[in-house]
Specification:
Keywords: Membrane, Transmembrane, Transmembrane helix. By secondary structure, the protein is of the alpha/beta class. The protein is built from 17 helices and eleven strands. The N terminus is likely disordered.
Length: 487
Amino acid sequence: MKDSMQWVWTNFIETIWRPFVKSAKSASLFILIFSLFFTALLSLFFFKTTSTSTVNTIPHYKYPKRNSEIQLDCTAYNHNGTCPSHNPITYNPQEANQDRSSDATCPEYFRWIYEDLRPWALTGISKEMVERAQTMAHLRLVIIKGKAYVETYKKPFQTRDISSLWGILQLLRRYPGRVPDLDLMLNCGDRPTVESSKYSGSNATSPPPLFRFCKDDNTLDIVPEINIKPWVPLLKELEKANKKTKWLNRAPYAYWKGNPYVADTRKDLLKCNVSDKQDWKARLYIQDWEQESKKGYKIYIEGAAWSVSEKYILACDAVTLLVKPRYYDFFTRGLLPRHHYWPINPDDKCRSIKFAVDWGNSHQKEAQKIGKTASEFIQNELKMEYVYDYMLHILNEYAKLLQYQPTIPEKATELCSEAMACSAIGLTKKFMMESMVKAPAKSWPCSIPPAYDPSSLYSLLKRKSNSIKEVEMWERKFTKNQENKHS
Ligand SMILES: *[C@@H]1O[C@H](CO)[C@@H](O)[C@H](O)[C@H]1NC(C)=O
Ligand SMILES: *[C@@H]1O[C@H](CO)[C@@H](O)[C@H](O)[C@H]1NC(C)=O
Ligand SMILES: *[C@@H]1O[C@H](CO)[C@@H](O)[C@H](O)[C@H]1NC(C)=O
């Protein structure tokens, strides 16, 4: 039953999306796709690290005087079903906009926030635009004076809305007084639904702003594609294992483990497995993901949509062989080919994989550096703090564009951590308790770097595509040489 529903859903999405896949790049500009909560949750769950900065270095940040932890008040909530009134603290624009020049700058990938909001940069966002997104949304989230209100339009798949909303509530707890009033539509599906082609041309209406926070295939979902282990222990394990396995002792093959039946491109990948006749230097297994640190090269290939395994693969010191993805995650645009990963041509996977492994085996130092750069990226730039900060910044920038003062929709209900957690049971409860923010952050959010100017954005994209093209050229040369050898 679940499978057939998944199938219907996938096909439905596929039908509306497929024709526009070619323009996915521009479409992506019109969509706020962040699998943010996915990541937030993963990280919430997994990076249970707390803020490292100290309060003392930022004397002008006024924390709530109650220095204590923010407790869940389930007794009161269960008594009369109302959210506590003291919590969280109201947005204060003066405080929120204070000069923060002494702060650490957020990672480079935060600059994409401006690109995602670019379609509305000139016009701003009107109430009409937001409401036009309603037909595509699962729910509407309004935040007013630090309180969250939700109107549900349709029930999303599985429990994805829960993880997203829980994340928002935790953000409000982490940064009391810093989340502005806002009004947004949220879709919890896997794939982008706002088609750019509908909104281009001289007389076109502006696209409806639609958030997509949840693409989580893990934790609360019932059919995880892969077996996720908690992130903090995993990262530590990986770090240890990475140290233990010297690069030179790593197996000189490209490894992949996963479920090939979710996407044609994955079934296609299986053709590259070693056989009596051919060795493309690929070793492919049908199986759940599991930690493997001894591999020199690991393949990342998208499934039905984007797959959670990317972070884990990048976190190993192995070189990630990235089969050119169609979808991206909020951080993936910060990755550079040949710097963080090695690009694999999706239309000629086997040859491309073999070339990559041969190249790496004969350029050990460079290959090793790629693996290291990627794992450092995951360890340093995808920390829990940054996931929250990304969320805060995107909401902030979005709210700046709103042309109206949001009001509580008639059918909305107030949402607070109590409303979600007090009655939760089992795994959901456990997940919530582990990921709950217990006190406001003790440090400022990082400051967002400036938007790309058109020419630097252009040259960045150009640099990326040239780097990939160069690899493709090497591959062609290599293939030609091989053919000459054999003839
Ligand atoms: C609900 O109960 C709490 C504590 O028992 C009380 O402070 C609050 O005023 C009550 N709210 C309503 C609407 O009755
Ligand atoms: C755009 O609108 C103008 C004025 O309403 C009209 O004259 C023009 O034909 C329209 N252009 C297109 C491409 O629809
Ligand atoms: C790929 O080849 C290896 C080695 O022969 C084998 O163990 C594995 O089962 C094969 N994988 C698939 C998906 O057939």
